[in-house]
Amino acid sequence: MRTPEPAIPERVQRHVIGMHCAGCHAVVDVAPRQLLSDFIAGTPVHCPGCGASYDVWGRMVEQLEFGVFGTRYAAVGANVVTAQVDLRRDQPLVLDFQKLGIPDAAEIEEIATTPSGSEEGWLHPVFQKDPGPGQPASDNLVIYPVPVGAGAEENQLSILIVWTSQTAAANPAQEELLAGVRAAHRSDPLGAIISLNVAMELALGSAMNAWLEIHGIGRGRRKRFLGSEATYGSQLSVLLPVAAATAGLAPIPERPRAALARLRNLRNDVAHGGLQAATIGGSDIAECIAAAAVGVVYCDALRATLA
Q: What pLDDT shows up at residue 108?
């Protein structure tokens, strides 16, 4: 086996992971966060392909539960890069993410590879170290060509890469939301529930703090009230609707509101040891991710309105 050499990517394409129409499967060409904002505001969304009315909540839950490669990360505004490289017998390749236009501060969430070949054989890609969710994009990957069947002297390899770029300091709630999606990706439903609920608690706490501040409540009193007097459940079910109404925002739609309550109950069950991973279905996690995504966007919108 030769010394690894840099991969030369061809036919590179980049786009945001979107949501798909259930009827014609066209991608709704709007960033998922904007779709959620439209959904919260009651703005009609239509498929660009067939013109049908688009059920943002329903499709997001379906994609999270049944979606193929990468679609689970649509809820956190992920990006995808596709490219092709040439695999040659006995020649390992170094995959440099920056040459694919991925920032070095980004994180790699998923990678899928598809080699071309014939019935007689082909070269199959094997990573020196399997990539996992959250891998720094500054790390290069080495791909080894392993012959399958009779092998081949050379064949093309298609690569799909899902990556995210989050800044925890700028939006810790969004970072926890991403942590929840990663936990679901790793088949860790209990970890997903904890992170998703933390994401909503952080977003809600920030919004409630801003709302109380504009009404003249001092910092110390706000901290005591939100930290020990007004429970998360009370903030979610009582304070948030009142604050949103005073700011002129529509209430959170019924389905995500019910799913947020379900997420809170599941989190409490996890915290008290009354919930086992085997009892949590894919539909539960899908709705929890969708609920947290809607809740974070909603609280961010409230905070922006109050600014």
A: 94
* Residues contacting 181, CB < 8 A, separation 6+: 72, 73, 75, 76, 192, 289
What is the average pLDDT score of the chain? 90
Only one residue has tokens 């994009």, namely 137
Query: Is 7 part of any domain?
Result: no
Distances (CA, A) of 200 to 36, 79, 160, 197: 15, 23, 31, 5
Q: Examine residue 6 and state whether it is found in any structural domain, yes or no.
A: no
Same domain? For 155 and 233 the reply is no
pLDDT in tens, 233-267: 999 999 999 999 999 999 999 999 999 999 999 99
What is the rounded CA–CA span in Å between residue 256 and residue 231? 20
Q: Is residue 1 domain-resident?
A: no
Residue 166, number of CB atoms within 10 A of its CB? 21
* Boundary residue ending a domain (120, 145, 163): 163
Domain final residue pick, 52, 76, 100: 76
For residue 262, the one-letter residue type is R
For strands 141-149 and 121-127, give the pairing. antiparallel
> Hey, what's the torsion of the CAs at 137, 143, 148, 152, to 10 degrees?
120
Contact (Cβ atoms closer than 8 angstroms) between residue 125 and residue 115: yes
Residues 203 and 255 in one domain: yes
What are the residues facing 29 on neighbouring strands? Answer: none
For residues 79 and 14, the answer to whether their CB atoms sit within 8 Å is: yes
